[in-house]
Write a structure and sequence with these properties.
mainly alpha
């Protein structure tokens, strides 16, 4: 059984952050990332981009990760 590499862990963490943020938006209309980093600031846009790239990474490597 192979262990998750660092990039896998980062992708999972970013997906959790993104998922929790969307849950807050859906339930309470509260965007935590925008509140902490600023509404559509450069930093918040970077976080949103990284979350999206993490989702793509996990989708592309789903079979590899599921074998672990």
């Amino acid at each position: 059984m192979n262990k998750l590499n660092t990039l896998d862990w980062i992708a999972y963490i970013l997906l959790i952050v993104g998922g929790l943020n969307w849950a807050l938006v859906g339930f309470f209309n509260f965007d935590l990332v925008a509140t902490i980093l600023g509404d559509m600031s450069v930093l918040s846009r970077i976080v949103y981009i990284l979350v999206g790239l993490s989702a793509i990474y996990i989708l592309m490597n789903l079979t590899k990760i599921s074998k672990k």
